[in-house]
Amino acid sequence: MSILPCCVLLLCAPLAVAAPVAGAIPYQAHPYSPAEYVKNYALIVCLAQAFPEYPALRRDLTGSARAYIELGRMPIEAYHHVYALSQSYLARQYRDMPGQKLLAMECLDFFHSQQLRQGIARFRQ
Question: What distance in Å separates the CA atoms of residue 8 and residue 125, rounded to the nearest whole number?
Fold first, then answer.
């Protein structure tokens, strides 16, 4: 699985939270641990990959993912790793009884998975 989409999609554009917009409430960083920033990033990129047909949602999700990268303090390789893990989770293709895809459920299961916890633990400093 390629990590190139992760780099192009999430690192090449400037971080939106840094530029003030008239009337906007500035983002206040939460006291997340470095691992929690990566875990939040994992959920966001999973959802962005799951729903590419919704451009406005995708823009919001990719902007949020960039923010988690910039605010986090783990090596960029940790983000690349969880991006690849999210792709493997989405390949599972959960379905309900009538056959409808359950993409959000896949992403939530990924967010709570042991694989994600172990993947993040590999990069703790």
Answer: 25
Pick the CATH number of 33-121 from 3.40.190.150, 1.20.120.1620, 1.20.1300.10, 2.40.240.20: 1.20.120.1620
Taking only Cα atoms into account, the Rg of the chain, rounded to an integer number of angstroms, comes to 15
Please give the share of the chain, as a percent, with pLDDT higher than 70. Answer: 76
Nearest to 67 by CA among 28, 3, 15: 15
Domain ranges of the chain: 33-121
Cα gap 125→103, rounded to integer Å: 32
Residue with more model confidence, 31 or 121: 121
